[in-house]
Design a protein that fits this description.
The protein has 100 residues and is an alpha+beta fold. The protein has one domain: Glutaredoxin (3-Layer(aba) Sandwich), CATH 3.40.30. Helix content is 31%, strand content 22%. The strands form 2 sheets. A 3-stranded mixed sheet has the order 2-1-3, covered by helices on one side. A hairpin with a 2-residue loop joins strand 4 and strand 5. The protein is globular and about 35 Å long.
């Protein structure tokens, strides 16, 4: 499994998300690699269809994609089981990473 955390410099939430993903990989015993990708310009955001930081890509797919979300350099908001949040919840990430 290939996981990529996409972020931009002004968003503090990507580091927490990245650490949680790393913990879950160990916890779930996954054979996975995690890379980070800094999205630095509006042009790069457009090219990548970057819908905010952090974006978690799993094997090239954004499992939390909202096609109506704007593309650009912004912090992303996620709908979680406890309301809106600045990153996916542990339960959401666990479900995605475990294929469930």
């Amino acid at each position: 499994m290939n996981i990529e955390i996409r972020y931009f410099d002004d968003c503090p939430n990507w580091e927490t998300t990245s650490a949680l993903v790393e913990e879950l990989i160990v916890d779930l015993g996954l054979d996975a690699s995690v890379k980070t990708l800094r999205v630095a310009t509006p042009e790069a955001a457009q090219k990548l269809r970057f819908r905010g930081s952090p974006t978690v890509m799993v094997d090239g797919v954004d499992p939390f994609a909202n096609p109506d979300a704007p593309v650009g350099l912004s912090c992303r908001i996620y709908r979680t089981e406890t309301g809106l949040a600045r990153s996916p919840s542990e339960a959401q990430l666990r479900a995605v990473l475990s294929g469930g």
